[in-house]
Amino acid sequence: MPTAAAVIIGNEILTGKFADENGPYLIRRLRTLGTDLRRLVTISDDLDAIASEVRRCSEAFDLVFTTGGVGPTHDDVTLEGVARAFGRSLVVEPRLVALMEAYGVVPDEMTLRMARVPEGTVLEESQASSYPILRCENVWIFPGVPKLLQMKFEALAQRFAGDAVLTDRLYVTARETEIAVPLAEIAARFPNVDIGSYPRFGEGDYRVIVTLESRDPEALRQAVHALRGTLPLREASKPV
After folding, report:
1. Would you list the DSSP string of 211-234?
2. 3 state DSSP class of 12
3. What order of strands is seen across the sheet that includes strand 63-67?
4. Number of structural domains found in the chain
5. In degrees, to the nearest 5, what angle opens at C-alpha 93 toward C-alphas 88 and 99?
């Protein structure tokens, strides 16, 4: 299955001026697509930080999604950071300049920052937007504005899809310390099922939510059955 990393770029997120909406969206959307998000990190508008993180993620995962830092202002340095990650020069992309002019943006020293891309960048077209999505190697460069990111991501979402993950959950009335041993035993019996245990307080007549996730429906069914016969439950299960 494809693996992915999301790199959320922006001082405004780290300083609390704006809450991050892009990370939670990508977590949910990649999950429904069957893509395994393995790393989510928020970093500042710093060239070295962007270059280092993008290079690390590009080497470790199939897909990398960056958000933010692609505008015309002095603090928009994502494109330069991605170029530095791959040891490439920034070059002016004529098609982006033409699009800017079509939208009434006058090319000048600052606005051209949006058209200077890492050498070898691919412009991925979609019907949802006349402005393409930029891809450098396996790094997809998205805007930071949540509505724009979501619109552009949805236009290409099926290109990132893997096999769907099936889920179930159990509501356990015992303490987590009391179920740790049987959980470990059943997890060992079903290596294709990801079993998680999450204590809850003051949310009802249960103390732990146990989640099960797998791409193997039969393994998931058997693991749920085994846990139902082992753990004290408030109710059998609810879908996630």
Report:
1. EEEES-HHHHHHHHHHHHTTS-EE
2. helix
3. 36-43, 3-9, 63-67, 139-142, 129-136, 122-126
4. 2
5. 150
Give, in degrees to the nearest 5, the angle at Cα 34 between 28 and 37.
Answer: 60
Phi, psi angle pair for 169, to nearest 5°: -150, 150
pLDDT digits (tens, 9 = 90+) for 180-236: 999 999 999 999 999 999 999 988 899 999 999 999 999 999 999 999 999 999 864
The secondary structure element, H or E, covering residue 83 is: helix 78-85
Say whether 35 sits in a helix, a strand or coil: coil
Kind of pairing, strands 139-142 and 194-199? Answer: unpaired
- Asked whether residue 172 falls in the same domain as residue 147, the answer is no
Q: Judging by beta carbons within 10 Å of its beta carbon (0-12, 13-18, 19+), is residue 34 exposed, middle or buried?
A: middle
Rounded to two decimals, the pTM is 0.91
- 149 and 174 in a common domain: no
